[in-house]
Amino acid sequence: MSVNQPSDNLDALNQETRELWEQIAPVWDDFMGAEGNSFQTVLIGPATERLLGIQPGERVLDIACGNGSFSRRLAQLGAYVVACDFSANFIERAKLRTTENADRIEYRVIDATDYEQLMSLGEGQYDAAVCTMAIMDMAAIEPMLSALTRLLEPGGRFVFSVMHPCFNNMGTTKLVEEEDRAGEIVTTYSMKVRRYLHQPTVKGLGILTQPVPENYFHRPLHVLFDACFQAGFVMDGLEEPAFGPEHTSPNALSWLNFHETPPVLVTRWRMAG
Questions:
Q1: Which residues contact 116 (CB under 8 A, 6 or more apart)?
Q2: CB burial readout 72-101, b (16+ within 10 A) else e
Q3: CA–CA separation, 182 vs 213, rounded Å?
Q4: What's the 3-state SS for the chain?
Q5: CA distance 18 to 138
Q6: Is the N or C terminus of the chain more exposed, i.e. has fewer CB atoms within 10 Å?
Q7: What is the pLDDT of residues 141-197, one digit of tens each?
Protein backbone atom coordinates (compact mmCIF):
# COMPACT_ATOMS: atom_id res chain seq x y z
CA MET A 1 0.00 0.00 0.00
CA SER A 2 1.09 3.56 -0.63
CA VAL A 3 1.06 4.44 3.06
CA ASN A 4 3.78 1.85 3.69
CA GLN A 5 6.07 3.01 0.90
CA PRO A 6 9.55 4.33 1.83
CA SER A 7 9.70 8.14 1.93
CA ASP A 8 11.80 8.39 -1.24
CA ASN A 9 9.20 6.33 -3.09
CA LEU A 10 6.46 8.57 -1.71
CA ASP A 11 8.29 11.66 -2.94
CA ALA A 12 8.59 10.15 -6.42
CA LEU A 13 4.95 9.08 -6.42
CA ASN A 14 3.85 12.52 -5.28
CA GLN A 15 5.85 14.22 -8.01
CA GLU A 16 4.45 11.85 -10.62
CA THR A 17 0.93 12.40 -9.29
CA ARG A 18 1.31 16.19 -9.56
CA GLU A 19 2.61 15.94 -13.12
CA LEU A 20 -0.30 13.68 -14.10
CA TRP A 21 -2.85 16.08 -12.64
CA GLU A 22 -1.33 19.02 -14.49
CA GLN A 23 -2.16 17.11 -17.69
CA ILE A 24 -5.59 15.94 -16.49
CA ALA A 25 -6.79 19.25 -15.02
CA PRO A 26 -8.19 20.80 -18.24
CA VAL A 27 -10.31 17.70 -19.00
CA TRP A 28 -11.59 17.53 -15.41
CA ASP A 29 -12.40 21.22 -15.42
CA ASP A 30 -14.46 20.86 -18.61
CA PHE A 31 -16.16 17.74 -17.25
CA MET A 32 -17.01 19.19 -13.84
CA GLY A 33 -18.05 22.62 -15.05
CA ALA A 34 -18.71 25.48 -12.66
CA GLU A 35 -20.80 23.53 -10.13
CA GLY A 36 -19.58 19.95 -10.45
CA ASN A 37 -21.08 16.73 -11.80
CA SER A 38 -23.94 14.69 -10.31
CA PHE A 39 -21.62 13.11 -7.75
CA GLN A 40 -20.87 16.59 -6.44
CA THR A 41 -24.32 18.14 -6.68
CA VAL A 42 -26.38 15.14 -5.51
CA LEU A 43 -24.11 13.19 -3.16
CA ILE A 44 -20.94 14.92 -1.99
CA GLY A 45 -21.94 18.57 -1.82
CA PRO A 46 -25.15 18.18 0.22
CA ALA A 47 -23.54 15.71 2.65
CA THR A 48 -20.50 17.93 3.11
CA GLU A 49 -22.65 21.00 3.69
CA ARG A 50 -24.69 19.17 6.34
CA LEU A 51 -21.58 18.04 8.19
CA LEU A 52 -19.77 21.38 7.90
CA GLY A 53 -22.73 23.47 9.02
CA ILE A 54 -21.13 26.63 7.64
CA GLN A 55 -22.13 29.92 9.25
CA PRO A 56 -21.80 33.25 7.42
CA GLY A 57 -18.48 34.91 8.10
CA GLU A 58 -16.58 31.74 8.94
CA ARG A 59 -13.12 31.14 7.46
CA VAL A 60 -12.80 27.83 5.63
CA LEU A 61 -9.76 26.10 4.13
CA ASP A 62 -10.56 24.10 0.99
CA ILE A 63 -7.71 21.62 0.45
CA ALA A 64 -7.20 20.14 -3.04
CA CYS A 65 -9.92 22.40 -4.40
CA GLY A 66 -9.61 21.38 -8.06
CA ASN A 67 -11.44 23.87 -10.24
CA GLY A 68 -12.98 25.52 -7.19
CA SER A 69 -16.57 24.34 -7.53
CA PHE A 70 -17.05 23.75 -3.79
CA SER A 71 -15.00 26.82 -2.88
CA ARG A 72 -17.51 28.91 -4.80
CA ARG A 73 -20.38 27.16 -3.05
CA LEU A 74 -18.82 27.91 0.35
CA ALA A 75 -18.47 31.57 -0.60
CA GLN A 76 -22.10 31.56 -1.71
CA LEU A 77 -23.01 30.31 1.78
CA GLY A 78 -21.23 33.32 3.27
CA ALA A 79 -17.83 31.84 4.12
CA TYR A 80 -14.43 33.37 3.47
CA VAL A 81 -12.40 30.70 1.68
CA VAL A 82 -8.73 29.98 1.18
CA ALA A 83 -8.63 27.32 -1.55
CA CYS A 84 -5.51 25.44 -2.55
CA ASP A 85 -4.39 22.74 -4.94
CA PHE A 86 -1.00 21.38 -6.02
CA SER A 87 -1.97 21.80 -9.67
CA ALA A 88 -1.23 25.32 -10.93
CA ASN A 89 -3.39 24.45 -13.94
CA PHE A 90 -6.39 23.78 -11.71
CA ILE A 91 -5.86 26.99 -9.73
CA GLU A 92 -5.77 29.09 -12.90
CA ARG A 93 -8.98 27.51 -14.10
CA ALA A 94 -10.59 27.96 -10.69
CA LYS A 95 -9.78 31.67 -10.81
CA LEU A 96 -11.27 32.00 -14.30
CA ARG A 97 -14.50 30.35 -13.16
CA THR A 98 -14.84 32.58 -10.09
CA THR A 99 -16.94 35.50 -11.28
CA GLU A 100 -19.17 35.90 -8.19
CA ASN A 101 -18.06 36.35 -4.58
CA ALA A 102 -14.47 36.62 -5.82
CA ASP A 103 -13.69 38.84 -2.82
CA ARG A 104 -14.46 35.86 -0.56
CA ILE A 105 -12.06 33.36 -2.16
CA GLU A 106 -8.26 33.34 -2.20
CA TYR A 107 -6.67 30.67 -4.42
CA ARG A 108 -3.19 29.32 -3.67
CA VAL A 109 -0.92 26.69 -5.23
CA ILE A 110 -0.13 24.45 -2.25
CA ASP A 111 0.89 20.79 -2.07
CA ALA A 112 -1.30 19.12 0.58
CA THR A 113 1.41 16.52 1.21
CA ASP A 114 3.86 19.27 2.26
CA TYR A 115 3.48 20.26 5.92
CA GLU A 116 5.44 23.50 5.63
CA GLN A 117 3.50 24.68 2.60
CA LEU A 118 0.23 24.06 4.43
CA MET A 119 1.43 25.90 7.54
CA SER A 120 2.12 28.96 5.37
CA LEU A 121 -1.67 29.32 5.12
CA GLY A 122 -1.87 30.61 8.69
CA GLU A 123 -1.92 28.87 12.05
CA GLY A 124 -5.23 28.99 13.91
CA GLN A 125 -6.91 30.92 11.12
CA TYR A 126 -9.73 28.58 10.14
CA ASP A 127 -13.10 27.65 11.63
CA ALA A 128 -13.36 24.66 9.31
CA ALA A 129 -11.50 22.77 6.60
CA VAL A 130 -12.70 20.56 3.79
CA CYS A 131 -11.08 18.14 1.37
CA THR A 132 -13.40 16.94 -1.38
CA MET A 133 -12.65 13.64 -3.13
CA ALA A 134 -8.87 14.05 -3.09
CA ILE A 135 -7.42 11.96 -0.26
CA MET A 136 -7.34 8.89 -2.52
CA ASP A 137 -5.18 10.98 -4.88
CA MET A 138 -2.59 11.80 -2.18
CA ALA A 139 0.60 9.79 -1.75
CA ALA A 140 0.60 10.72 1.96
CA ILE A 141 -2.10 12.24 4.17
CA GLU A 142 -0.23 12.48 7.48
CA PRO A 143 1.32 15.91 6.72
CA MET A 144 -2.12 17.36 5.95
CA LEU A 145 -3.69 15.93 9.10
CA SER A 146 -0.81 17.14 11.26
CA ALA A 147 -0.99 20.63 9.77
CA LEU A 148 -4.75 20.80 10.25
CA THR A 149 -4.38 20.36 14.00
CA ARG A 150 -2.62 23.75 13.99
CA LEU A 151 -4.41 25.48 11.10
CA LEU A 152 -7.84 25.00 12.67
CA GLU A 153 -8.86 27.09 15.63
CA PRO A 154 -9.94 25.23 18.82
CA GLY A 155 -13.21 23.43 18.13
CA GLY A 156 -12.72 23.66 14.38
CA ARG A 157 -13.99 20.83 12.21
CA PHE A 158 -12.58 19.00 9.23
CA VAL A 159 -14.83 17.29 6.67
CA PHE A 160 -13.48 15.09 3.92
CA SER A 161 -15.04 12.92 1.24
CA VAL A 162 -13.44 9.99 -0.57
CA MET A 163 -14.39 7.22 -2.93
CA HIS A 164 -15.90 4.70 -0.51
CA PRO A 165 -12.98 2.39 0.36
CA CYS A 166 -15.29 -0.63 0.66
CA PHE A 167 -17.29 -0.33 -2.53
CA ASN A 168 -15.55 2.04 -4.91
CA ASN A 169 -11.96 0.99 -5.40
CA MET A 170 -9.79 -0.84 -7.91
CA GLY A 171 -10.57 -4.18 -6.25
CA THR A 172 -14.32 -4.10 -6.88
CA THR A 173 -16.50 -5.00 -9.86
CA LYS A 174 -20.04 -3.80 -10.54
CA LEU A 175 -22.48 -6.57 -11.42
CA VAL A 176 -25.85 -6.38 -13.16
CA GLU A 177 -27.98 -9.53 -13.27
CA GLU A 178 -31.29 -10.08 -15.01
CA GLU A 179 -33.69 -12.93 -14.39
CA ASP A 180 -37.24 -13.95 -15.23
CA ARG A 181 -39.20 -14.44 -12.01
CA ALA A 182 -42.47 -16.05 -13.00
CA GLY A 183 -42.91 -13.73 -15.95
CA GLU A 184 -41.43 -10.63 -14.32
CA ILE A 185 -38.01 -9.47 -15.53
CA VAL A 186 -36.02 -8.44 -12.47
CA THR A 187 -32.69 -6.58 -12.61
CA THR A 188 -30.34 -6.81 -9.64
CA TYR A 189 -27.37 -4.51 -9.04
CA SER A 190 -24.55 -5.66 -6.79
CA MET A 191 -20.83 -5.39 -6.11
CA LYS A 192 -18.13 -8.05 -6.08
CA VAL A 193 -15.22 -7.22 -3.78
CA ARG A 194 -12.08 -9.04 -4.91
CA ARG A 195 -9.56 -7.17 -2.78
CA TYR A 196 -9.98 -4.69 0.05
CA LEU A 197 -7.30 -4.81 2.76
CA HIS A 198 -4.19 -4.69 0.60
CA GLN A 199 -4.10 -2.89 -2.71
CA PRO A 200 -1.00 -1.48 -4.40
CA THR A 201 -0.88 2.01 -5.81
CA VAL A 202 -2.49 1.73 -9.24
CA LYS A 203 -3.46 3.97 -12.12
CA GLY A 204 -7.03 4.40 -13.27
CA LEU A 205 -9.37 6.62 -15.26
CA GLY A 206 -11.64 8.94 -13.34
CA ILE A 207 -12.95 10.23 -16.68
CA LEU A 208 -12.75 8.09 -19.80
CA THR A 209 -11.59 11.03 -21.92
CA GLN A 210 -8.67 12.13 -19.73
CA PRO A 211 -5.32 12.02 -21.55
CA VAL A 212 -3.50 9.93 -18.94
CA PRO A 213 -4.64 7.78 -16.00
CA GLU A 214 -4.18 9.05 -12.44
CA ASN A 215 -2.67 7.40 -9.38
CA TYR A 216 -5.02 5.91 -6.80
CA PHE A 217 -3.84 5.42 -3.23
CA HIS A 218 -6.24 2.98 -1.58
CA ARG A 219 -6.62 3.13 2.20
CA PRO A 220 -9.02 0.70 3.90
CA LEU A 221 -11.14 2.23 6.63
CA HIS A 222 -8.89 1.21 9.51
CA VAL A 223 -5.86 2.83 7.84
CA LEU A 224 -7.73 5.96 6.81
CA PHE A 225 -9.36 6.48 10.19
CA ASP A 226 -6.27 5.54 12.20
CA ALA A 227 -4.29 8.28 10.45
CA CYS A 228 -6.91 10.76 11.70
CA PHE A 229 -6.91 9.28 15.20
CA GLN A 230 -3.11 9.39 15.39
CA ALA A 231 -3.17 13.08 14.48
CA GLY A 232 -5.50 13.72 17.43
CA PHE A 233 -8.87 13.88 15.69
CA VAL A 234 -12.10 12.20 16.71
CA MET A 235 -14.93 11.48 14.29
CA ASP A 236 -18.33 12.92 15.16
CA GLY A 237 -20.17 12.68 11.85
CA LEU A 238 -20.40 10.23 8.95
CA GLU A 239 -22.57 9.87 5.86
CA GLU A 240 -22.58 7.27 3.07
CA PRO A 241 -24.69 8.90 0.36
CA ALA A 242 -26.01 6.88 -2.57
CA PHE A 243 -28.16 7.79 -5.54
CA GLY A 244 -31.88 7.33 -4.92
CA PRO A 245 -34.44 5.54 -7.09
CA GLU A 246 -35.24 8.82 -8.83
CA HIS A 247 -31.79 8.62 -10.41
CA THR A 248 -31.27 6.15 -13.25
CA SER A 249 -29.09 5.80 -16.32
CA PRO A 250 -29.36 3.84 -19.57
CA ASN A 251 -25.79 2.76 -18.86
CA ALA A 252 -26.46 -0.33 -16.76
CA LEU A 253 -23.17 -0.01 -14.87
CA SER A 254 -23.58 3.66 -13.99
CA TRP A 255 -23.50 4.49 -10.27
CA LEU A 256 -26.87 6.17 -10.85
CA ASN A 257 -28.42 2.66 -10.90
CA PHE A 258 -26.75 1.35 -7.72
CA HIS A 259 -29.22 2.65 -5.15
CA GLU A 260 -28.12 0.42 -2.26
CA THR A 261 -24.37 0.91 -2.60
CA PRO A 262 -22.73 4.20 -1.56
CA PRO A 263 -19.93 5.23 -3.93
CA VAL A 264 -18.63 7.90 -1.54
CA LEU A 265 -17.91 8.32 2.16
CA VAL A 266 -18.13 11.71 3.91
CA THR A 267 -16.87 12.19 7.47
CA ARG A 268 -16.46 15.01 10.02
CA TRP A 269 -13.58 15.24 12.48
CA ARG A 270 -12.68 17.47 15.46
CA MET A 271 -9.64 17.65 17.69
CA ALA A 272 -9.85 15.34 20.73
CA GLY A 273 -10.23 17.24 23.99
A1: none
A2: bbbbebebbbbbbbbbebbbbbbeebbeeb
A3: 45
A4: CHHHCCHHHHHHHHHHHHHHHHHHHHHHHHHHCCCCCHHHHHHHHHHHHHHHCCCCCCEEEEECCCCCHHHHHHHHCCCEEEEEECCHHHHHHHHHHCCCCHHHEEEEECCCCCHHHHHCCCCCCEEEEEEECCHHHCCCCHHHHHHHHHHEEEEEEEEEEEECCCCCCCCEEEEEEEEEECCEEEEEEEEEECCCCCCCCEEECCCCCCCCCEEECCCCHHHHHHHHHHHCEEEEEEECCCCCCCCCCCCCCCHHHCCCCCCEEEEEEEECC
A5: 9
A6: C
A7: 999 999 999 999 999 999 999 999 999 999 999 999 999 999 999 999 999 999 999
In whole angstroms, what is the distance from residue 201 CA to residue 188 CA? 31
Alpha carbon distance 192, 135 (integer Å): 23
- Whole-number Å distance between alpha carbons of 189 and 211: 30
Report the alpha-carbon distance of residue 83 to residue 60 in Å, rounded.
8
Give pTM, 2 decimals: 0.94
Q: In whole angstroms, give the CA distance from residue 263 to residue 5.
A: 27
What does the pLDDT look like over 191-238, one tens digit per residue?
999 999 999 999 999 999 999 999 999 999 999 999 999 999 999 999
How far is 116 from 201, CA to CA, in rounded Å? 25
Residue type, 54: I
Candidates 142, 117, 114, 151; CA nearest to 217 is 142
**CB neighbour class for 147 (10 Å; exposed up to 12, middle 13-18, buried from 19):** buried
Q: Which amino acid is at 233?
A: F
Report the Cα 124 to chain-centroid distance in Å. Answer: 23
